[in-house]
Amino acid sequence: xxxxEEIAFGTAAFAVSASTVAYAALSPGSQLFGRxxxxxxxxxxxxxxFDDGPNDAATPALLDLLATHNARATFFVIGRFARQRPxxxxxxxAAGHLVxxxxxxxxxxxxxxxxxxxxxxxxxxxxxxDALGEPVRYFRPPHGARxxxxxxxxxxxGLATVQWNVMAMDWQPIGADxxxxxxxxxxxxxxxxxxxxNILLHDGSDRQMGADRSDTLRLTSWLLxxxxxxxxxxxxxxxxx
Length: 241
Known about the structure:
By secondary structure, this protein is α/β, with parallel strands linked by helices. It is about 45% helix and about 15% strand.
């Protein structure tokens, strides 16, 4: 192999390696860095998972909506907001929903030091446990971003890592109709694969308390009506692992 060929080969190999690492770090479905919970093997199950709360502008209304449908959901809460509204964290749990860890400040964990990762998870655990008086067992990394250290530290803290296989894109101002298009596409992919739907939604925002999530509420209402009509059972992610 000539020198130019060696350089070209090395460049291509580096590009493939970098692409693989990026996929493993950011793709919600990747298992290259370790096992994460995506869904179960029953296409008639759906998990509504809400990130970035508790949020006093949306979470109470969302809980009322879920109660009218006797539906269960999973809430991955941000620790600093749990500290502000422990009453909402208790209300979530008292309604039969699962409360999980979404870090204390919502950083991109894949790029953080091991010390920062541990403190983000530990501090969020503490905020939730102070509110509920029970241990936290499930964790979702912000943006889905992780590396092996994230999964290892989560495991050391007794946390199973949860990702998703359906996105509503509801952190963007696209309206409930377009959100439903994204969810329908994701649910169809999950059904073709013979799995349940683990739907990523948001009842808050990592930037501040009080975020407007009225479109997410509208979307959730539509989804619950569809689930009832189609015989889809809502589950919390702990039934999957």
